[in-house]
Task: structure prediction
Amino acid sequence: MQDQIQEILRREELSSSQFADKIGVQRSSVSHVLSGRNKPGFDFIQKILQAFPGIDADWLITGLGEMYRKRRVPGELFDGPFSETSPAKDEKNLSANIETPGLKERPAEGLKPLAREVERVIVFYTDKTFREYRNEQ
Result:
């Protein structure tokens, strides 16, 4: 991981002390990791990823892959292509009803059912980040 941290310092144009300040650890901790004296712990790695959200966690830990995560195209919901039968393929149909067996929606007594549309969709990723999409018609 020493090489990956050195690469972050180089690409972000930071000194080791600036890096330590940015991730919120003691300067000696960074010095010890860079010299090979200590191996970084989970908290150290987590602080790097929080301070540099564009850094790919797999690259940081293993050195494999690209340093920076791929940026998503605005409006792109998923990484891969849609399947032919995917209801999400038609992005304009955001208000499609989803049938749930065993559940029936009933309006409260005396109220008429309202026309409903999807207001927003939130996608949560395994790296603890999320992306919010709003229906802006």
Q: What stands out?
A: The beta strands are 120-124, 130-134. Residues 17 and 27 are 5 Å apart (CA to CA). The chain has five helices and two strands. Residues 2-12 form the longest helix (11 residues).
